[in-house]
Amino acid sequence: MRIALLAHVRQRIAQPFMGGMESHSWYLADGLMARGHDVVLFAAGDSDPRFAIDPVVAEHYERTFPWAEHRGSAPLIAHLDAGYASACDRIAAGGFDVVHNNSLHRFAIEPRRTAVVPTVTSLHVPPYDALHWFVKESATPGHHLTVTSQRQMAAWWPDGAPRRASVLHNGIDATAWPFVANGDGSAVWSGRITPNKGPHLAIEAARMAGVPLKLFGQIEDPDYWDARVAPLLGGDIRYGGHLDGATLAAEMGRASVFLFTPCWDEPFGLVAVEAMACGLPVAAFDMGAAREVIGEGGCFAPADDAVALAKAIGEAMAIPRDIPRERVERLFTHDRWLDACEALYAQVQTVSA
Questions:
Q1: In contact, 337 and 168? CB cutoff 8 Å
Q2: How far apart, in whole angstroms, are the C-alpha atoms of residue 104 and residue 87?
Q3: In the chain, how many H helices and how many E strands?
Q4: Which residues contact 138 (CB under 8 A, 6 or more apart)?
Q5: What structural domains and CATH numbers belong to the chain?
Q6: Structure confidence by residue, pLDDT tens digits, 219-231
Q7: Residues 6+ apart with CB under 8 A from 307
Q8: pLDDT of 178-189, one tens digit each?
Q9: Element (H, E) at 159
Q10: Positive or negative, the Cα torsion across 190, 191, 194, 198?
């Protein structure tokens, strides 16, 4: 099958990943190629050269238009619109069997485009004004929408989802996140360092619980880091940098509990799944899809409640490590995810024929 994979272009599709959307596109391209598909990655031109890249923009837009300065600005919008318009035109003329759209851009879901090339669109975020109307108007036989959780499904369509929408849980290669039978008594946190991910609350809870904590991830919001995170570091609370997947997996495996602290309506929580694969039970805020994803692999605290999270840390550490690992193997594997993607591609092709 000849597949166009249309990615978000704020960051490179390359390791170390800035976030879940970059990881999703990279592993999707890699997995589909391994299954023998002809995949062209429409992404920032400075993405991983292992893929056949057709650039949407020459380089990821964070380098040209830093998001913190240009979010919603006319120059950024014009830059992205020009890139995606051209990319969508090339896809339409490129002889593709199907498009997997991860872009969160309105052009890719226009009915006039999905009528030409059958499209699967994966929505990785809660609904927001700039895209919500276009999504609702995009339902056509050749277009299937996916969300990452039941919680996200209800957020996008509170009155009931359209027939051509479904939950597609994210999946990971569990062999890349090796199971470790015992931890060292410490906690670990990983993710984009930004207010809506709540690392400052993870630090507060770990201190109250008397548990060493190491944080990993890209410092996306330097002002937040300087004001709310860096002043809390010291002693048993350390920052370990932004790591590639293999190094992060090794660091994860050493710990005894993962802290998951979303302060927004988290659509999925890929970092929690990665930690669970290593055998880490999770102490989490009960926000977004956290309970749906973590299930019996963790313990929960009310959102923004560091005191309750400190209590959940101790409770989570009592969960046998094989329980979170088994949940990942049952629900969130790479092969299960790719099987579902291939089934959707066949479905939209059949409906469009």
A1: yes
A2: 14
A3: 15, 13
A4: 109, 110, 111, 114, 121, 145
A5: 2-171+333-352 (3.40.50.2000), 174-331 (3.40.50.2000)
A6: 999 999 999 999 9
A7: 205, 208
A8: 999 999 999 999
A9: none
A10: negative
